[in-house]
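hiii, so i know i said id send this last week but things got crazy w the move. better late than never?? heres the sequnce for the chain we talked about at the cafe, plus the structure i predicted for it. fair warning i was half asleep when i ran it
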Amino acid sequence: MTGSKNAPDRDPERLVRDYADLVLRVCYTYLRLTADAEDVCQDTLVKLICRDEPFRDPGHERAWVIRVAANACRNLLRDRGAHPAVGLDDVPEQAAAQAPGEDALRRRDDRVLAAVMALPLPQREAVYLHYYEGYPTREVARIVGATDDTVRQRLSRARASLRDDLKGDYDDFPA
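okay and structure toks below
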């Protein structure tokens, strides 16, 4: 092993702990299938753990992880488009019992998530990185390989689409 892999900041347990949930969410945003998202997540974490080159800072490390995961998802989607397949596991998992009142909140969350997931991929990735991960538009642009103006346009279109899709249910959203 090289020195960088033995350094405390390259500890595999820390890397998995810090990035597994993030990578899984990024992958699910692209792929919409839990099993595929888990596969790409695992591959991304292995690449991160095996990487010899040091990162400039934690922000560079995080951006690299997101970029690698996003690129792997795009590659899988491109391969899937070239070689379509039918999934064998289309049976939804049973939900756990819920406390009273949770059902309404869950339906609301599910509706918002469904509306976000129905957005075209460029808008969906911009919404995820900006609103869920908290990246500024300039950083989102760098991660996805677009201009800052393009990312802002994608966010604007996504907000307009979500506003239309969720009209009446969420009148407290700003216009």
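btw Residues 1-6 have pLDDT under 50 and may be disordered. thought thatd interest u
miss u guys!!
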